[in-house]
Specification:
With about 350 residues, this protein is α+β, with helices and mostly antiparallel strands. It has one domain. About 15% of the residues lie in helices and about 20% in strands. It contains 5 helices and 16 strands. Strands 1, 2, 3, 5, 8, 9, 10 and 11 form an 8-stranded mixed sheet that branches. A two-stranded antiparallel sheet has the order 4-12. A two-stranded antiparallel ribbon has the order 6-7. The chain is globular.
């Protein structure tokens, strides 16, 4: 996978799942003079340990073994394999999403926020044959499995609406700092925000976050280090609430066409919002806690292998749901082409 030169060495290790966990205490807030990079979380969350981070690179950077402008070459060797996660939570059998609009910079009337929540609210409803591709993947099978038996625990559907809650956390400005990118020696503040969100929504009992993911949506111009070199990422952080899975979702129109603006529609201001969040959502439900779920031999997930395809098999397109029309990318299907695999927008 080709990386932007300035962070290639750091991110290669991170995507491979080789990041060294970073532990922080969830005790009292830092006193004056302490590191400004610490962030208070509820004491009940216990000690937090950052998990591996999986990045989504912008247009123009190769995501897979194929060319980024066309479908990845189909061959069994390209297929996703199970990473061997031994406990529930390698994939999501009942997906649940909470969205956090983090920071006082957000306006509740921002059309970006409405577009994002409408997209997630519409998934698994009328018109959605896009998420069906993920249901071929499963958990609790042998490491290296390529095809799941019918008896396995598969990626499933939500209980009720996918979008379980929305929180405008506007008590203070968002101050995003990431772990790993540009070698900043701190915990990931998006992860800390995800833990606070778990507490806010009452998801604090052991096991309450097994199927759940939190989308931490950053406000405009609240730039995380490395933003623009990546479009988004997903990860997890361990806590007394369980391993909390989350996505760092920048304000994507700040970076424009690099992260999908106008990628499908001529006036597609928010195309990148649904393309990128859709990418992260589909990767998370098939690899909830990287890399215990489904990746290929290069460590790429189902979204990476099909990123930014503009024509032919698996090209980006509109998905029409009951809540509106949204641009999405294809995702990898091991079952496509008689098991050779390929990028598809819906299961056949």
């Amino acid at each position: 996978m080709r990386k932007p030169a300035r962070i290639a060495a750091t991110c290669a290790a991170v995507i491979a799942g080789a990041i060294t966990p970073i532990t922080m205490s969830s005790g009292p807030a830092a006193a004056a003079g302490d590191t400004p990079l610490s962030l208070r979380v509820p004491a009940s969350a216990g000690d937090l340990t950052q998990g591996p981070v999986h990045y989504f690179w912008p247009r123009g950077h190769q995501q897979s073994s194929g060319d980024a402008s066309s479908a990845a070459a189909a061959s069994p060797g390209n297929n996703l394999v199970y990473g061997g996660g031994s406990a529930p939570g390698s994939v999501s059998t009942a997906p649940a999403v909470y969205v956090v609009f983090w920071g006082s910079q957000w306006s509740t009337s921002d059309p970006y926020a409405s577009y994002l929540t409408s997209f997630l609210s519409g998934l698994y409803g009328t018109g959605d044959d896009w998420t069906t591709v993920s249901r071929q993947y499963c958990q609790g099978v042998a490491s290296g499995t390529v095809t799941c038996p019918s008896t396995a625990s598969h990626v499933g559907v939500p209980s009720g609406s996918l979008l379980k809650g929305v929180w405008f956390d506007n008590a203070a400005p968002a101050t995003p700092v990431t772990a790993g990118v540009l070698n900043i020696p701190s915990i990931d503040q998006m992860a800390a925000e995800a833990v606070r969100a778990a507490a806010h929504f009452g998801n604090t009992a052991p096991g309450s976050n097994t199927e759940t993911q939190y989308v931490i949506a950053l406000p405009s111009l609240a730039l995380a280090p490395g933003e623009g070199y990546y479009c988004a990422y997903h990860s997890s952080i361990s806590s007394s609430y369980g391993d909390v899975a989350y996505t760092n979702l920048p304000y994507l129109t700040d970076v424009g066409s690099l992260c999908g603006q106008d990628a499908v529609n001529a006036n597609g201001t928010y195309d990148g919002v649904s393309i990128v969040e859709g990418h992260e959502f589909m990767e998370t439900i098939t690899d909830m806690r990287p890399p215990s779920g489904w990746t290929d031999s290069s460590g790429e997930e189902n979204g990476d292998k099909c990123a930014w395809i503009t024509s032919g098999q698996g090209a980006m397109a509109n998905l029409t749901l009951s809540t509106g029309t949204f641009a999405v990318q294809s995702t990898w299907s091991n079952a496509f082409d008689n098991g050779n695999g390929g990028c598809v927008l819906h299961s056949s």
